[in-house]
Write a structure and sequence with these properties.
Elements (H helix, E strand, L loop, with lengths): L3 E7 L3 H12 L4 E5 L12 E2 L1 H9 L4 H6 L3 E2 L3 E5 L2 E5 L8 E2 L2 H12 L5 E3 L1 E9 L2 E8 L5 E11 L6 H5 L7 E10 L7 E5 L6 E7 L4 E7 L5 H13 L10 E7 L8 E2 L3 E3 L15 H21 L3 H17 L5 H10 L2
Parallel strand pairs: 1-2, 1-11, 2-8, 5-13, 11-18
Antiparallel strand pairs: 3-7, 4-7, 5-6, 9-10, 10-11, 12-15, 12-16, 13-14, 14-15, 17-18
Helix pairs in contact: 1-4, 1-7, 2-7, 7-8
The structure holds flavin-adenine dinucleotide (FAD).
């Protein structure tokens, strides 16, 4: 690995890949450090809202491309809870997709790999100021061997594992939630189904068919003990009579709190996606924000590197604040999910 880079992006999820794409377009080179390995499965929900699908279209993934990745367009949305029920079986109204996250993430990574090489199995442990730029401390995920890279700017796209953005005060001060999900064989539901779990208060359960499996999950939209979440998940899953595959995979949510003020450090660091606390606090949908903020972060760093003035970075912080404030308005939860997933 070259020890001097223009930009280091930490994390090769949708946010990091979107940032890399934008930088490559501006003719800026760099690398991505990704602690995982290629094709790694993620404990994420695999469901793309119409807004997230629009972002994939902008990457050049049309309906044929999404189907080639094993995806399918969901044709029915059922949202139920707190005495309300919304249902749409009209396929023309619904343009969201279900696609395995590992497949889409790898496709995104492969698109940018030539312009912005991804170093898999490399965990970034710390970032320090160094001269005009930064020293990025890394550790091999397999051997534990440490290394250091110097660079002119850093983009933090680490997902909900946000200790680096927190250390720099640019994590958006998120509310912490969590989800559990599993793949199982079982009786297929008619479409994408969300049910509100009253004992979780702020939280809900979902189920939808993948190609030959069910994706079942439960999420909490406020700090909740692992035991409570697991108990709720087990009760909900039983309703779908899963025959096998009862291995829960967990993940955190860095939910938008509205409390964050800055998402940049004036000498050349920005955060984006979950690392910036940009997950929807009412639904835990985070892919749209990851795509949009990743691209905006890449453009901001390109602007910063052009003149080394921090105006482009301050503009990025203003953009994030505006994005969260506009998108995460308060609606009753069932209605919000209905609008989001049915795209109405
Ligand atoms: C169970 C669950 C279900 C979900 N379901 C949905 C859904 O159906 N639809 C939806 O829109 N959203 C869903 N979300 C939220 C969505 O997954 C996230 O909002 C989205 O993945 C954020 O993208 P990102 O690029 O910011 O982060 P991520 O996709 O998490 O990518 C971050 C990357 O950074 C890497 N990384 C982390 N730390 C380091 C480090 N120190 N060094 C190097 N690499 C590092 C990680 O390995 C990872 O590949 C779900 C989340 C969970 C937990």
């Amino acid at each position: 690995m070259k020890q001097q880079q223009a930009v280091v992006i930490v994390g090769a999820g949708p946010a990091g890949c979107s940032a890399a794409r934008e930088l490559a377009r501006a003719g800026i080179t760099g690398i991505i450090c990704e602690r995982g390995m290629p094709h790694k499965e993620k404990p994420c929900g695999d469901a793309y809202t119409p807004d997230a699908v629009a972002a994939l279209h902008e990457w050049g993934l049309d309906a044929d491309g999404l189907a080639a990745l094993g995806g399918w367009r969901y044709q029915r949305v059922i949202i139920e809870g707190f005495g309300q029920r919304y249902e749409d079986g009209d396929a023309t109204q619904v343009s969201g997709w279900v696609i395995r996250r590992a497949a889409v993430d790898q496709w995104l990574r492969d698109q940018i790999h030539d312009a912005f090489p991804i170093h898999y199995g490399v965990t970034v442990t710390q970032i320090r100021r160094c001269g005009d730029g930064f020293e990025v401390m890394t550790r091999s995920s397999s051997s534990g061997e440490p290394a250091a890279i110097t660079c002119g700017a850093v983009i933090l796209a680490t997902g909900a594992a946000n200790h680096l953005s927190r250390a720099w005060g640019i994590d958006g001060q998120p509310v912490l939630g969590a989800s559990l999900s599993l793949y199982a064989q079982g009786a297929p539901p008619p479409g994408l189904e969300f049910r509100f779990a009253k004992d979780l208060q702020a939280g809900y359960a979902w189920v939808f068919p993948m190609r030959d499996q069910l994706n079942i999950g439960v999420c909490a939209l406020k700090p909740t003990s692992a035991a409570t979440l697991r108990a709720r998940a087990n009760v909900f899953a039983q309703a779908w009579q899963p025959h096998s595959g009862m291995t829960w995979r967990g993940g955190g949510h860095a939910l938008w709190s509205g409390e964050g003020i800055v998402w940049h450090e004036p000498t050349g660091i920005v955060s984006c996606g979950d690392a910036a606390g940009l997950t929807d606090p009412h639904s835990a949908e985070g892919l749209t924000a990851a795509f949009r903020s990743g691209a905006a972060a890449g453009a901001a760093i390109a602007g910063f590197l052009a003149d080394r003035r921090s105006a482009a970075l301050a503009d990025y912080s203003a953009w994030v604040k505006d994005f969260g404030t506009r998108h995460y308005q308060t609606l009753t939860a069932p209605l919000l999910l209905w609008r989001m997933w049915a795209g109405v």
